[in-house]
Amino acid sequence: MKQELDKKEKAITRQYWDTVSLLSNVLEHNQLKEADQQDRIGYYTKQIYRQLQKDYPEYGITDEEIETIAHLAPIHDIGKIRVPIEILNKEGKLTEEEWNIIRRHPLVGAEMTKWFPKGSETKQLNQYSYEICRHHHERYDGFVYPDGLKGEEIPLCAQVVGLADAYDALVSVRPYKKKITSKEAVNMILDGACGAFSKQLLQCFQKASMKRDWIEK
Q1: Does the pTM exceed 0.90?
Q2: Once rounded to an integer, what is the mean pLDDT over residues 5-26?
């Protein structure tokens, strides 16, 4: 009986990760995310997390947590699947109605994660995926969306992915903007141009961004 239950749980976990992979491919196919962009988001997330693990052992961050969040980071924007492509690719200023549609994507994405395969071994995975999708746009001072969480009310996984996403957006080309250098992007984030992040997170981000591998990425 135990072997059968273990086998079933492993199958559910495999289905969970297959779902994550499928959604990543959908984002890429719909040109909402490029493959290398998804790789970068995962990479930046992992490097920031590693620095947090090193500098703040009191957080109790495990290697497994780091790997898991890095693999989930690329699906943070799955809610944009429901956003019209002409809004996402608009070069001019968005209208208030268009902004309201954009602001709903964290809620839409979080609802989508509720349909991910569930089992005893995926309980933590389901929580991570929900928190990342729903809260990656929350900022430490309580401003931004969708729930206005502040400080440590924001799950750490969402804080880190949100910071990685903010950085990647700055150093990437968008229909409405040109890319900037890594140094410029780091300085903008440290100066608060992308919203408020915790002091600890910014310190770790700055350290991670100074490493050669990061700059080359």
Answers
A1: yes
A2: 90
CA 183 – CA 155 distance, rounded (Å): 27
Tokens representing 59?
């957080």
Q: What percent of the chain has pLDDT over 70?
A: 94
DSSP H or E run through 169: helix 156-170
pLDDT for res 4: 74
Distance CA 204, CA 49 (A): 8
CB of 23 closer than 8 Å to CB of 75: yes
The three-class DSSP label of residue 210 is: coil
Q: How many residues does the chain have?
A: 217
What are the residues whose beta carbons fall under 8 Å from the beta carbon of 81, sequence distance 6 or more?
26, 27, 30, 32, 108, 112
Helix (H, G, I), strand (E, B) or coil at 136: coil
* Distance separating alpha carbons of residues 215 and 17, to the nearest angstrom: 29
> Which amino acid is located at 50 in the chain?
R
Q: What is the mean pLDDT of residues 48-67?
A: 97
Q: Which two tokens stand for residue 45?
A: 């997330």
Where b means 16+ CB within 10 Å and e means fewer, 169-202 reads ebbbeeeeeeeeebeebbeebeeeebbbbbeebb
